[in-house]
Structure prediction request, 135 residues.
Amino acid sequence: TMPKEPAVLRQNILDTTAAILACGIDPKKCFLFRQSLVPEHAELAWILGCLTTVPRLLRLPQWKMKRASQNSEGTVGLLTYPVLQAADILLYKSTHVPVGEDQVLHLELAQDIAQHFNKKYGEFFPVPKAILSEL
Prediction:
């Protein structure tokens, strides 16, 4: 949600990819892709954003904490980032999502959005469940 220099962003992408591969992820057994090259993420985020209320997003503690740490009113990107996260989860019709404690509320938002979408348009998205790590 913070602007980055293009060269730094490109290097971050390469570094992250190298770290994932170094952890033992086998690209022959899984799909490894750059999310920004898949337009459906942004497209679904737009649709889901049209179903999500601003007061719902303003209640998220991460918004309050990050906004306070930035000493500003916050950006639209920061406010709507949880909707993009929901799109990332729902786009692939995920049923279970590994999350840390700090992301439980964002997953609950994804669950709420899935339920709201399904109620309005018919059963389409599974409601994802959290897989909480003990670490």
